[in-house]
Amino acid sequence: MRSAEINGEGVRLRAFRPEDAEALAEGYNDQMSQRFLTVVPSPFTVAQAETFIVERIDSLFAEGGAFYAVADPETDELLGGVGFDKAVPSRGQAEIGYWVGPWARGCGVATAAVRTMSAHAFKHGLHRLELVTHWDNPVSQRVALAAGYQREGVRRGAQPNRDGGRDDMLAFARLASDDGEAVPRLLPDLPGGELTDGVVRLRPLGPGDTAFLTELRSLPDVVNTSVPPVPPTPEKIRQRCFWAEAHWLAGTRADLVIEDAVTGEPAGDIGLFNDEPVTGQAMIGYSMLPAFRGRGFPTRAAQLLSLWVFAETGVARLIAGALPTNKGSQRVLEKAGFRQEAYLRSRLPGPDGGRVDDVQYVLLAEDLLR
């Protein structure tokens, strides 16, 4: 299966050369590479790069794998590397991996390299390729989806980390019978990265929001209306912030921060939970910091999110719930166009192991427009 070079759209895969050692060391020493390529020594020296080129690549091919330099087809500059290992011949499967130097990121190099390597592997007898990536590496997840890999699930504790522990990993896979086209997303990115009406702004929740979310999710009234009604641990808060984009890319939920559009201060959060894509039904929920209550922010946020949902996704029906005693939340939903549809007895877990009733509201696209 070893080839002198493999030409793809915008990239050329070729053998590594001794003169690539410095660029290889620079790429592997990059902060992102060190974070996610945990098997790479830290630091990674030029001498180690030279040994890798001379010895390790031959070993990979001998083990049934492959590893190629990703080069610019016009200048031959080294842009990264791509290959596969962990081959299981009896199953016709292997695990694909890649890296791209910081000097070549943001130009589609990784997607082109993974597409080219995948086509080459399938052409030479493999039937299934897996791409495994960290929860908090949305860039790699985007590459997987763009290269035709479908997310299949979570592998718990699959990857050793540099702290002596083990990380859960997301598994994507592509079959030789797949068309290789980009995987359609249930929840697209926001236009321009945000939604705003000039008063409030909605933007995706991210790693920088841990302190804000900790403050918000520790409020007693927010805890009491959460499911389940218990304060989240610091690790759960961290996961929610660092893994938010992964959930969005998977199409399962979209977590957003509600900001004051004038000051930029975080005022609350609002989420879309896409738990019934087959029936076209999803749910929204929101919380506000006390300093921003009584200013109409959650109503505006609910309207902004609903407009985006009906215009850009396959959701046809939005639901939201409120405790019977939470008249404030019920007024927010009614002002946003939601209509009360049901009173569900003992629907949700309540404090101290009990159950609480839920008043359910529904919004359709025609309700919002009307």
From TrEMBL:
Database matches in InterPro entries: Acyl_CoA_acyltransferase, GNAT_dom, Ribosomal_N-acetyltransferase
Gene Ontology, cellular component aspect: cytoplasm
N-acetyltransferase domain location: 11-174, 200-366
Alphabetical keyword list: Transferase
Pfam families: Acetyltransf_3 (PF13302)
UniProt GO MF annotations: protein N-terminal-serine acetyltransferase activity; protein-N-terminal-alanine acetyltransferase activity
PANTHER family recorded: ACETYLTRANSFERASE, RIBOSOMAL-PROTEIN-SERINE ACETYLTRANSFERASE
Protein name per UniProt: Protein N-acetyltransferase, RimJ/RimL family
Organism whose genome encodes this protein: Paractinoplanes atraurantiacus
